[in-house]
Automatic annotation (TrEMBL):
InterPro entries: HD/PDEase_dom, PDEase, PDEase_catalytic_dom, PDEase_catalytic_dom_sf, PDEase_CS. Residues 1-300 form the PDEase domain. Residues 302-315 have a biased composition (Acidic residues). GO terms for molecular function: 3',5'-cyclic-AMP phosphodiesterase activity; metal ion binding. This is 3',5'-cyclic-AMP phosphodiesterase. It comes from Chelydra serpentina (Snapping turtle). Zn(2+) 2 binds at D95. Gene3D superfamilies: 3'5'-cyclic nucleotide phosphodiesterase, catalytic domain (1.10.1300.10). AMP binds at H54, N55, A56, V57, H58, D95, D204, Q255.
């Protein structure tokens, strides 16, 4: 419908503006609401609406999830307005100008971004630099000191770079070590920023923690984007990337691998950090959704339990029992 379309097209602007207002950021940082709206419109327009998954709706979804994590008691009582500001901007911009293909694709096609960022966190660096470009262009923080603006840019960078899924093990190992030692001190800015990195990582891959109906739709969209890349790779004989071959992959196999090797280990640690009803609900949905995909996998009798592509990414997997205890 017209209204449905209109609402969806405007979702990132309206949600983020609403959250800025809700968290008192407009007042606290003396933001010009016209500039804020213009900044958010530019952000929204720099997402590619033709991407099935990496578009402004995904960015809005991640921003909404981030807001929920910021409100968790353990975080909310120690966060400063500055932390909230950076978290919401990083969430809204974390996939800015995403081309709808992954880093290996950019590297093998000699894309200028791969060259520019020397094949390291190519997409995440691009999302961050694009966000910085729009922040400067909008003049939203022109009234702040240049030291603060520089600090903001680098801290937003640290948050966005943490969403590089191929580096999840590093972040997770550090998170686990802190939780084992019980030495996280949220009065320290450095520790708070580490937790915000973990929160943004959770927000970015929380699709399987939503209800089945929502989760299933996200899964279909991300698979559509993967398979489209695989089609292009086949057409130009570039070698099909893992998870991108519609002939040999299924949504169920991809999702079960994704949940087992990436989502479950991350959310198990998050629930240790913030053991709340929200965390338990997310782990509950995760377990149910995985069971649903396993049911569908059995129905289609497509074979393998998990996708080997994920095993290369994450070797230490928590046993399933610890997740729901
Ligand atoms: Zn994302």
């Amino acid at each position: 419908s017209f209204w449905g379309k209109w609402y969806q097209n405007d979702i990132l602007v309206s949600l983020t503006f609403h959250l800025f207002n809700l968290h008192g950021l407009i007042e606290h940082f003396h933001l010009d609401t016209m500039k804020l709206r213009r900044f958010l419109v530019m952000v929204q327009e720099d997402y590619h609406s033709q991407n099935p998954y990496h578009n402004a709706v995904h960015a809005a979804d991640v921003t909404q999830a981030m807001h929920c994590y910021l409100k968790e008691p353990k975080l909310s009582k120690s966060l400063t307005p500055w932390d909230v500001l950076l978290s919401l901007i990083a969430a809204a911009t974390h996939d800015l100008d995403h081309p709808g293909v992954n880093q290996p694709f950019l590297i093998k096609t000699n894309h200028y971004l791969a060259t520019l960022y020397k094949n390291i966190s190519v997409l995440e660096n691009h999302h961050w630099r694009s966000a910085v470009g729009l922040l400067r262009e909008s003049g939203l923080f022109a009234h702040m000191s240049s030291e603060n603006r520089q600090l903001m840019e680098s801290q937003i960078g640290a948050l966005i770079l943490a969403t590089d899924i191929s580096r999840q093990n590093e972040y997770l190992a550090l998170f686990r070590t802190h939780l084992d030692r019980g030495d996280l001190c949220l009065e320290e800015a450095g520790h708070r920023h580490f937790i915000l990195q973990m929160a943004l990582k959770c927000a970015d891959i929380c699709n399987p923690c939503r209800t089945w109906e929502l989760s299933k739709q996200w899964s279909e969209k991300v698979t559509e984007e993967f398979f489209h890349q695989g089609d292009v790779e086949k057409r130009y004989q570039l070698g099909v990337s893992p998870l991108c071959d519609r002939q040999s992959e299924t949504i169920a196999n991809i999702q079960i691998g994704f949940m087992t090797y990436l989502v479950e280990p991350l959310f198990a640690e998050w629930a240790r950090f913030s053991n709340t009803r929200l965390s338990q609900t997310m782990l509950g949905h995760l377990g149910l959704n995985k069971a649903s995909w396993k049911g569908l996998q059995r129905e289609s009798s497509s074979g393998d339990d998990t996708d080997p592509a994920f095993e290369e990414m994450d070797s230490d997997v928590l046993p399933q029992e610890t997740l729901l205890s």
